[in-house]
Fold this protein.
Amino acid sequence: MRPIGAPFVVVPPAGARIRTRLRVDAADEQVLMRVGEHLGRLAGSDLAARCRFGRFPDQQEGQRTARKRALTTAASSRWAGAITRTSGDQWERGYANLLDARVGLRRAIQRLESRLRVTVGQRQGRVSGYATQAERFGKQRRLQHLQAQLAKVEKRIAAGQVSVCRGGRRLAKLRHRVGRDAGALTEVEWRAHWQAERWFLTADGEADKRWGNETIRVHPDLRWLELRLPTPLAHLSNTPGQAVTYRLGCPVVFNHRRDEWAAQASSGAVRYDLWYDPTRGRWYVDASWRLLRPAVPGLEELRQDRMLAVDLNAAHLDCWVLDPSGNPIGAPNTIPLELDGLPASVRAGRLRAAITTIVRLAIAHDCRSVTVEDLDFADIRQAGRETLGRGKRGKSFRRTVSEIPTRQFRDLLVGMAANAGLWIVAVDPGWTSRWGRRYWQTPLDHSTKQTITITAHHAAAVVIGRRGLGLGARRRPGMTRPHQRMGKGELPARPGVEPWAVRNPGLLEANGQRHRTRPAGANGSTPGDQVAQDRPVPPVRVDKR
């Protein structure tokens, strides 16, 4: 059994990003399209040059300076800086993807080889062979295919050969299905999406410049937006007597986190991104800036207050409030999360609504932290059917895993919780559901304080919370069962004292139960049960474990 990882406090995000709509007219839209198309061509050529350069970290700064100098004459020094910075980030992300692909291929190959070494229909330790010879033959072919892919990836990594598609590889592949499937994009619609994705309208923030930067600026009070035009498009300027800029005719208003953005724009760096949505025919502007990271508290500090434990599932979220001793408080909560078959925008909205409910529950119960599982199904997705079973049951489980929005849930929860002043504690997800069902579901379901049926997911939330508090998932040995008085069950062991069952292992009844002996009185009679207040010593205190 693999070891359980230690819990940790998730670092809050280091930046903020807000968005608003631009209600531009036809003239403004034409200018934005021409600027985006011109800069997009420059960004494409620069990215190709960066990919041809390969992996040479010692000369990276020098080659970026040369590329920036070549782009300055066709745009401006600030546009050239943003383009070269973006190309470098895209190359680094593509190279990291190659490294991740190599790790996944090695893991899948190792799993296939371990199962192929076992005879068909037999089992060797914890590794089982394939059910039939035909299935084993198919896995041998798949192993050869994966080994060929791994060889290609290793060769590309050694040469620093990274492939990056501006506009997205998924959208590029969609071109081959245009007009073939029902509901698919037409060629005109696909072309509009492709061009919009390849435009470049991004201005990096500058801390020592007015209103965040000198390329794209938004005035918080006057509500205008100006962008600097590239040198070949300087004739489109509508601000005579000033720099070569173009000012939009529509007002620009940020509603969400407006005060924070205005304060940052007046004294710090702000990055702006203009982009176009072809489906709705709308223009948007995004503003982003860095945040001052607060000091992350330690686990021992957070464990002194209440916390909310959350269990993420495919169609719902189950959460329960725990006190510092690891005891559930009040009733559990189940938040529906139906995302199957919905558009991406609707899924994101429902996920945000569910996280908003979690944040409100934590604030209402005076919780300082929210404990979740550090879920990442990357290993399972890479191994695939080799670890998730076969047949209908395995297929159903794989479908369930694919429907759980682990990454989106984690990123949104960390950001929204940080805005509400809450901290996120991530714990190892190993055996939380199984141990919750075994040790906590039945006792919690039999409790007279609960008026609802306790599910295994509620019990898993308790285990998640106790793991975040540094407590064990199993209940303390020797505790009385539900609805049993103190005299009918073994009391918890005193601190530093072994339980009675350990000190007297040989006393057994005929039915296998432990037999507890009592000292006889002067006349040979056995004293009866004593109530707590009549005992000569203080009652036993149950320390948290």
